[in-house]
Each structure stands twice: as structure tokens, then as C-alpha cells.
Specification:
- This protein is an alpha/beta fold.
- 20% of the residues lie in helices and 36% in strands.
- It is built from three helices and eight strands; from the N terminus they run E-H-E-E-E-H-E-H-E-E-E.
- The strands form two sheets. Strands 1-4-3-2 form a four-stranded mixed beta sheet.
- Strand 3 and strand 4 form a beta hairpin.
- The longest helix is centred in the N-terminal third of the chain and has 11 residues.
- It starts with a strand and ends in a 5-residue tail after the last strand.
- The model has no long low-confidence stretch (mean pLDDT 89).
- This is VOC family protein.
- Pfam families: Glyoxalase (PF00903).
- Keywords: Metal-binding.
Length: 130
């Protein structure tokens, strides 16, 4: 078994597409900026984050037609230099909610939200610094 992707169900597909592609800098698989589906990949690793229009999945699972509330997910991305990455994405419109700051003695983190309110945690693993 292999993790292929984490899929986020979104209502404003275009805004979320711009966030993951332009703000976070992940690579879109096909360039389907208007949806209803797109997978984004980081520069390394094989798993990715996918967006799917919530109404499309509501056709399969009716309960998804209800408005989503609260924090529904936490996407975690590891970066090599948290401070530099946070500076880069801030210039592209990201608004940090917290950090960069230590979370444990082994990692530093920063948090932000995508346009749908999904939490994104950026991690820098201190043990990998050498």
C-alpha cells in the first residue's frame, strides 16, 4: 500500500488552486485551474495534495452537500528552511497565523489557512540540519 494523496473537498476551487500553486509553490499535475480536480506535488516525494470540488463528491455521498464547518483537516508540509520559506510565501499573499516558532526540541513550525479554512502546518525538522 502507498499513500497517493490527501484530497481536500473545496467549494471555491479556483481560490484553493491559486493558493496551493501560486502561494505555496506546489506543482499542479494538469493545470486544471477551474477544477473539478487537481493534484499538487512538492518538489520531492511521491504523495501529493489534491483538490476536488465538494459538489462533485456530494453527487456520490449526499452528506457532503452540507456546508463544512470547523477545522476539517491539517495538511503538513516539511521544508528545509522555515524562515526563508515563510518569507517567500508571505510575499505571495500567505498570512501566517502562528510562527515560525519551536514546537518541540526537534522541530519548528508555522501555521496558515488555505482559502477554505483548511489548516496548513509547515515544519522544519531540526535534526536534519546537521
Amino acid at each position: 500500500m502507498e499513500l497517493a494523496q490527501v484530497r481536500l473537498l473545496v467549494t471555491d476551487f479556483a481560490a484553493c488552486y491559486r493558493f496551493y500553486a501560486e502561494v505555496l509553490g506546489l506543482k499542479p499535475q494538469s493545470g486544471a485551474a477551474e477544477g473539478p480536480y487537481e493534484k499538487f506535488s512538492p518538489a520531492t516525494g511521491s504523495a501529493g495534495i489534491a483538490l476536488q470540488d465538494r459538489s462533485m463528491m456530494a453527487e456520490v455521498l449526499g452528506e457532503l452537500g452540507d456546508t463544512a464547518t470547523g477545522h476539517r483537516s491539517l495538511v503538513v508540509l516539511r521544508v528545509d528552511d522555515l524562515d526563508a520559506y515563510c518569507e517567500q510565501i508571505a510575499t505571495r499573499g500567505a498570512v501566517l497565523l502562528h510562527g515560525p516558532a519551536p514546537m518541540t526540541d526537534r522541530m519548528r513550525v508555522a501555521h496558515l489557512k488555505d482559502p477554505e479554512g483548511n489548516l496548513v502546518e509547515l515544519q522544519e525538522w531540526l535534526l536534519l540540519r546537521g
